[in-house]
Amino acid sequence: MSITDGRHRALGLTDDEYALIVSLLDRHPGDTELAMLSLMWSEHCAYKHSKKLLRRLPTDGPAVLMGPGENAGVVDVGGGLGLAFKVESHNHPSAVEPFQGAATGVGGILRDIFAVGARPIAVLDSLRFGEPARSPRSRYLLERAVAGIGHYGNSIGVPTVGGEIYFEDAYEHNCLINAMCLGLAPHERLIRAAAAGPGNVLVLLGALTGRDGIGGASVLASAELGDGASDEAKRPSVQIGDPFAEKKLLECSLQLLDSELLVSLQDLGAAGLTSSASEMAAKGGVGLDIDCDRVPLREPGLEPFEIMVSESQERMLCVVEPHRVDEVIAVCERWETRATPIGEVTDSGRMRIVAAGDVVADLPVSILVDECPVYDLMPVPPDPRGAPLYAAPASVLTGLESAGETLLALLGSSNIVSRRPVFEQYDPVVQSRTVRRPEQADAAVLAIDNDPTHPGAIAVTIDGNGRRVACDPRSGAIEVVFECAANLACVGAVALGLTNCLNFGNPEKPHVAWQLTEAVDGLAHACDALGIPVIGGNVSLYNEGPSGPIYPTPVIGMVGALPDPARAAGLGFVRPGDAIALVGAFRPGYAGSELAKLRGAPVSGPLPALDEAAAAQAHEQVRSLVRSGAARSAHDIAEGGIAVTLAECCAPNRLGAWVTLPAGLDPFAEALGRAFIVSGAPEALADLNVIGTVGGGSLSLDGIFDLAVSELAAALQRRV
Questions:
Q1: What DSSP line would sit under 171-201, residue for residue?
Q2: For 220-268, how does the pLDDT look when each residue is reduced to its tens digit (9 = 90+)?
């Protein structure tokens, strides 16, 4: 095969990359080898445009048990328990086939969690779509993606306890579906993915292997989406999920680990057997032999390359000592889960694939995992005198509306209105751990255990704001981290670690490279400032459509711990007569704000300056108020400014408030992650900046407006 044949280009490899492969092998790769290499050298698997940047993120912390490089990161939550968590994207498959794309995104992140030995206890999702009120396509994607998430999570019995949804024109052609999962495991059950022990047996667990998902990593997640016709052609690349098969696989895997029958365990995700096997071999410094004829197939006649790159769901790969294979198979039979020995561990340092007695691939493990070129980005900030990167949003408000009319418009806007119609499709309480469910508090709260030796709780939140990051990538990314930490503080939790999903456009374009570089620098800076380690994550690039790239959207999932779940504050005011206090100093602005969007303002910065030390101090103050019981409610000031925050505090329990704002504070301006509204007994909050009192049937703000709580609640319940 010569380089002019072009087959490598169809598989996503450049001419230079193919030439490097030929040089490293000292020969042309065979068909199966080329398919394996094309996926392992894809952006989705190799992180070739982001790997250097990710090294800037801090990964060490006192609670970290497992960091980046494993299926999921793990932090210590005390009592001999570890909390595993991770967020991943399924953007491109969901843009093509939203139900299965979103469903298998949930399935994939669940497997990442039990692949390290943890039982999944919660799912959260971070979603982005175009404006459904104007776009039938975006409404279809929204409805089918939400249905897919609910189908998989509800069926497998893992609660969906939180999440976020934003609607922006920039996501019209490329929706974002980011799924986060967390799970608990005793320290002794945690397991790594490194294969070990030449002569040990490689066993494939779970579903049959079919053609679904073939090419998913390279065809979808490492290229831009095109028009509808090309998207339709890519539909076979979307995986098909079966949550009931995954439930059996989950229970089977955990019993195998409890019985200490496995040497290592790995999820089969993007690139299927190729990625899982080669990554296990690389981590263990060993080789693997795989016999394709032994892989159980859903349909006859699959070619060896199809078997090796199939992304069929609900499969795991494990390494087992030879004398324990029968025990493994017996456990799997109990759970009606297929277990098939398909190969063995060798000391060759090579991946050798056999089919019909012939060697169809023989590659050094290193060429699959370590030798893909890693590129330097060429970041160039956009010329402020040139055409704007993003079109100004459609104008909804003229700027002549009264303050009351403005507040009602904000409360009913697509990015602030209640997400109850979505959350009602998810089961948030299965497993009976959920203390604070969606829209009850700024973070979800889960009891660790009913065991009195584990009295504490876990808090978790997921957040991002692409429009603000588009205005100012570095400052916007810093805000996201502070916003997540603020959400945890509102329920009394201190952060233990975070995971990220970096959703950006084509990194080969200078302005996108600049956005990505600036945002990662911002994340690293914020993590250092708050002392929060990054324990893992995901990068999703090439999120573009015919109209251009998405907003740069770093999504942060953050977990924390709190000693008493009963003290976790909700966001709603609780008692008439309680004092309302403003905690934290800030100077909000209109750049990237919801009101700026409703008025059709261009997407441009800069964002308000963040005093990091003052914000961190405010976080600690709110956390202490909640833990002591002094604060009966706590809610951070975010989208829509202090006016929207107060309305959201009034609506849950239909309690009004009389509030006088500090001089010069614009009620609709925004500055995220640095200030809070808390309420509690007047004597408990006497030393704070008290700005009002809970009571009555309306929200009265300093003579600016006086609106009935029923009217506020109705606006928040408007359907998008």
A1: GSSS-EEEEEEEEEEEGGG--------TTPE
A2: 444 554 544 444 444 455 788 899 999 999 999 999 999 999 999 999 9
543 SS3 class: coil
What are the φ/ψ torsions at residue 56 (nearest 5 degrees)? -80, -15
44 is catalytic: yes
Non-local (6+) Cβ contacts of 20 within 8 A are 371, 373
Distance CA 685, CA 690 (A): 7
Whether the Cβ atoms of residue 29 and residue 274 lie closer than 8 Å to each other: no
Helix axes 403-411 and 641-650, enclosed angle (nearest 10): 70
In the set 49, 90, 511, 525, the catalytic residue is 90
123-149 average pLDDT score: 96
Instruction: Give me the half-sphere count of Cα atoms (radius 13 Å) on the Cβ side of residue 675.
Output: 24
pTM: 0.95
**φ and ψ of 436, to 5 deg:** -125, 120
> Closest Cα partner for 494 from 455, 524, 456?
456
Say whether 150 sits in a helix, a strand or coil: helix
Helices then strands, counting H and E runs in the chain, come out as 23, 28
Say how far residue 444 (Cα) sits from the centre of its chain. Answer: 15
Residues with Cβ < 8 Å from 491, sequence gap 6 or more?
436, 441, 442, 443, 445, 459, 562, 568, 569, 626, 634
The pair of three-digit structure tokens given for residue 54, joined into one six-digit string: 């990710």
Alpha helices in 465-555 (DSSP H): 466-471, 473-490, 510-530
Strand partners, 289: 344, 352
Omega cis (within 30) before 606: yes
Three-state DSSP class for 403? helix
CA–CA separation, 653 and 573 (whole Å):
7
Confidence of residue 467 (pLDDT cuts 50, 70, 90): very high
Please tell me the distance from the alpha carbon of residue 547 to that of residue 174, in angstroms, as a whole number: 10
Q: Is 449 exposed, middle or buried (0-12, 13-18, 19+ CB in 10 A)?
A: middle
Query: Long-range contacts: 15-21, Cβ < 8 Å, 24+?
Result: 16/373, 17/41, 17/372, 17/373, 20/371, 20/373, 21/367
**Catalytic: 511?**
no
- Which of 502, 555, 514, 527 shows the shortest CA–CA distance to 47? 502
Which stretches of 300-349 are assigned E, i.e. beta strand?
A: 315-320, 339-346
**Distance from chain centroid for Cα 176:** 10
pLDDT band at 545 (very low <50, low <70, confident <90, very high): confident
Q: 164: closest CA among 396, 414, 395, 530? A: 414
The string of pLDDT tens digits covering residues 663-697 is: 999 999 999 999 999 999 999 999 999 999 999 99
Q: Quote the distance between the C-alpha of residue 388 and its chain's center.
A: 28
Both tokens of 182, joined, read: 């967390």
- Beta-bridge partners for 582: 677, 689
Specify the pLDDT at position 233: 45
Instruction: Name the pLDDT band for 6 (thresholds 50, 70, 90).
Output: confident
Terminal-to-terminal C-alpha distance of the chain? 55
